Amino acid sequence: MVWQFAVSTLGMPGTPIGRAARLAADHGCHGLEVRAHPDEQVHIGLPAREVERARVEIADEGLAVACLAGYAKVCAPGPDGPVVAELRALVDLAHRIGAPSVRVFPGGDGESRDRIGAVLDDLRSSGVRLLVETHDSHLTGEAAVRLVEPFGEPDLVAVLWDALHPWRGGEEPARTREVLGEYLGYFQVKDADVELTPVAPGRGLVPLAECGELLSGWSGWVSLEWEKAWHPEVAEVDEPLRAAAGWFARYGSR
């Protein structure tokens, strides 16, 4: 089993990529999960030279790009065209910055099959994997895996298991792990209190110890997602990152 440890730039809103990579490296990370958002240095439409600059700044700290965290919603209401265009742009950006995968959201009750199907060739040609997160309209592993199973290619289209959301949706970690099976492509470490406010891993209610045990035998990226961009009142990323590193040290070597 091989786990690799990363942190998302969601926990460092507005921080230049080079500085974010340095902080990640200082805490023992192997990679950086890069948020692709208009408020950040990396976003759709970024000129090629700036994409290359970001890639080099991450590599210069000895890190890989663990994932490109995009905000496309594959089940969003409305026409397919804009969603497919956004997916293609994210896949291209992931390829250029050196990310092995791109994270997207479900985002509604619409039909995702044609939208994901439209970018399969883009995924194959770029070597990028599409990860649908357990999130919003599809909180649980059982719900999210239904979006990717029809393609039958877990190396191409899989699920990102966010530790918080299936649990708050009433799905026990053992069930999440069971239903995802070979479609588990990535794991995000996250903890929260009773109000669902982010807290350092191990200090909240999310059963992260159980998740760690259940991930035994699995290989892939695990990343701390600290939602400071959405909760500016919470602590800086250093404290939760130290806690996440401790969780990784305990379970990632098994």
UniProtKB/TrEMBL annotation:
<dbReference type="Pfam" id="PF01261">
    <property type="entry name" value="AP_endonuc_2"/>
</dbReference>
<keyword id="KW-0413">Isomerase</keyword>
<dbReference type="InterPro" id="IPR036237">
    <property type="entry name" value="Xyl_isomerase-like_sf"/>
</dbReference>
<feature type="domain" description="Xylose isomerase-like TIM barrel">
    <location>
        <begin position="22"/>
        <end position="248"/>
    </location>
</feature>
<dbReference type="InterPro" id="IPR013022">
    <property type="entry name" value="Xyl_isomerase-like_TIM-brl"/>
</dbReference>
<protein>
    <submittedName>
        <fullName>Sugar phosphate isomerase/epimerase</fullName>
    </submittedName>
</protein>
<dbReference type="InterPro" id="IPR050312">
    <property type="entry name" value="IolE/XylAMocC-like"/>
</dbReference>
<dbReference type="GO" id="GO:0016853">
    <property type="term" value="F:isomerase activity"/>
</dbReference>
